[in-house]
Design a protein that fits this description.
- The chain contains 13 helices and 16 strands.
- The chain folds into two domains: 126 residues, Enolase-like, domain 1; 229 residues, TIM Barrel, CATH 3.20.20.120.
- The strands form three sheets. Strands 6, 7, 8, 9, 10, 11, 12, 13, 14 and 15 form a ten-stranded mixed β-sheet that branches. A four-stranded antiparallel β-sheet has the order 5-4-1-16.
- By secondary structure, the chain is α/β, with parallel strands linked by helices.
- Helix 2 packs antiparallel against helix 3, helix 5 packs parallel to helix 6 and helix 7 runs parallel beside helix 8.
């Protein structure tokens, strides 16, 4: 039986942030976290980074999966934050995505940071998974995108160190065969601006308008490098100019955007709504890319999207996470907002991730088609996680009679 829901953010209308009224709210009784180890990708293109998954279980047995964005040396710390927040939730009353967001903000007491917000993102994603499963609806419908299951995507082409121009040409050929029509290269992988611009020129000469080519500069310390590269590659009209300066250096972003005329994208290392309000207020970006599993939660992402939409700014969530839980959450959000840009996919992660869980989408001709299963449409293999995990923790409440 379907549960009643409020009107959520509509793909083609004013974007609002709402939650669903669930007919059978339950208390949280168990919080589990797994941190996986890194591994070489099956295709040899790069390494698959560690992931941090969370499983929440409610008193009626409903399970929700979440995932936190983690950086090297911080994985166990973020898992510890998740477990600490879980203890607070389990000691309280019924929790929903909105009430959890309010609780997490109170606990932080304005001392939020990326690791804390990654932890809250993981928990909130899992709560949304639970909410949608209890409503027997895919999450994109809970968020207001009824019938919209298709999202444009791009392939991230980060590689092992010291790639050559030939490597990128070959990789682009391979991704075209897989159906991708948009690719992102990392110019920071080249030692000089000339090498990076030569790579862009060769890709343009080889593929022309057959692909949309994105450039990720990796936030160089000297913005003169970004300006020099922008001048060199301007004739090739890159789709966007990502991280040409550190996301905290707002004045540098404004300067680069004004001087280059390129579409500037920023936000992958930042979290919480206030930072993005500032970016939007001063016109420092054309596209925002907060990480879906690090920004703070889906509600934060929806609020940022609404603010950006009002300013004519697009949203392309960063997703240097697994292609299971986090990727599904990213795609459900993109399906529900009117200003979604192409969503980020790591093609070399997919086969590795399929061994630890289901992929909640299929890829076809540069589009991700979401599953119509309830929730995120993702189920993780706990037995495999137990084998590949480098850290596992569980907190639970005793049964109450």
């Amino acid at each position: 039986m379907l549960k009643s829901k409020d009107n959520g953010p509509k793909k083609n209308g004013p974007l609002e942030v709402n939650t669903i009224s669930v007919a059978r709210p339950n208390r949280l009784v168990c919080v589990e976290t797994w941190v996986t180890g890194s591994a070489p990708s099956d295709d040899g293109w790069g390494d698959v980074k560690p992931f941090l998954f969370v499983r929440l279980t409610t008193s009626d047995g409903t399970i929700g999966w979440g995932e936190a964005f983690v950086l090297p040396c911080r994985e166990k710390a973020v898992a510890e934050i998740i477990q600490a927040l879980g203890q607070v939730i389990m000691a309280g009353d019924v929790i929903t995505p909105r009430t959890f967001r309010e609780l997490a903000y109170r606990i932080a007491d304005k001392h939020r940071g990326l690791d804390y917000m990654a932890a809250t993102s993981a928990i909130e994603i899992a709560l949304w998974d639970i909410t949608a499963k209890q409503a027997e609806l895919p999450l994109y419908e809970i968020l207001g995108a009824s019938g919209n299951q298709q999202v444009s995507v791009y392939a991230n082409c980060w590689s092992k160190p010291n790639p050559t121009i030939t490597h990128f040409v070959d990789r682009t050929h391979a991704l075209l065969v897989q159906g991708f029509r948009s690719m992102k290269i990392h110019t920071s992988q080249f030692s000089t601006v000339k090498e990076a611009s030569d790579c862009v020129a060769q890709l343009y000469a080889t593929f022309g308008d057959e692909i949309d080519l994105m450039l990720d500069l990796g936030a160089p310390k000297n913005i003169e490098q970004s300006l020099e590269l922008a001048s060199a590659i301007a004739p090739f009209k890159p789709y966007w100019f990502e991280e040409p300066a550190d996301g905290e250096d707002i004045q540098a972003l404004i300067e680069i955007r004004k001087k280059t005329g390129l579409r500037v994208m920023t936000g992958e290392k930042q979290c919480g709504v206030p930072h993005f309000k500032t970016i939007l207020a001063v016109g420092a970006a054309d596209i925002l890319n907060p990480d879906i599993a690090g920004v703070g939660g889906i509600l934060d992402m929806l609020e940022i999207s609404a603010l950006a939409h009002a300013k004519g700014v697009a949203i392309s969530p960063h997703c240097w996470d697994s292609m299971t839980v986090a990727a599904a959450a990213m795609l459900h959000v993109c399906a529900s907002i009117p200003n979604a840009e192409k969503a980020e996919i790591y093609p070399e992660y997919i086969s590795n991730c399929e061994r630890i869980g289901t992929i909640g989408f299929t890829l076809k001709n540069g589009q991700a088609i979401l599953s119509d299963q309830p929730g995120l449409g993702v189920e993780m293999n706990v037995e495999v996680l137990a084998v590949v995990a480098t850290d596992y923790r569980i907190s639970s409440l005793p049964n109450r009679h």
